[in-house]
Specification:
- This is CXXC-20-CXXC protein.
- There is one protein chain.
- The chain has about 100 residues and is mainly α.
- It has one domain.
- It is built from 4 helices and 3 strands, in the order αββαααβ.
- Strands 1-2-3 form a 3-stranded antiparallel beta sheet.
- The radius of gyration is 16 Å and the shape is elongated.
Length: about 100
């Protein structure tokens, strides 16, 4: 779970998932209100995790699975992404370049 770099409080899973669905690049700490940003390594891990859903779609097409099976794979991979994401988040106070 992410830890605020300002107040050093650990965010809950629910708080992290809630902040994950914002369009802003930063996340406001629910404890101190300071803006936190994802670290470069955290961005890379999240990018790799996001390939899980298209991979499930490709898997379904390559192995000629039924539409319902592909749909279940997509839903399951989406749930896995949402469940795992908070454990991969690391925060920083400064914006880091991706490369």
């Amino acid at each position: 779970m992410p830890i605020c770099q300002n107040c050093h409080k650990q965010w809950s899973w629910k708080q992290t998932v809630k902040k994950m669905f914002t369009l802003d690049t930063g996340m406001i700490c629910p404890n101190c209100g300071k803006k936190q940003l994802l670290t470069t390594q955290s961005k890379k891990r999240a990018g790799l995790l996001n390939f899980l859903t298209p991979l499930a779609m490709l898997f379904g097409v390559l192995f000629n699975l039924s539409v319902i099976t592909i749909f279940i794979l997509i839903i399951a991979s989406g749930v896995i992404v949402i469940a795992a994401y908070p454990f991969l988040v690391e925060l920083t106070e400064e914006d880091e370049p991706l490369w």
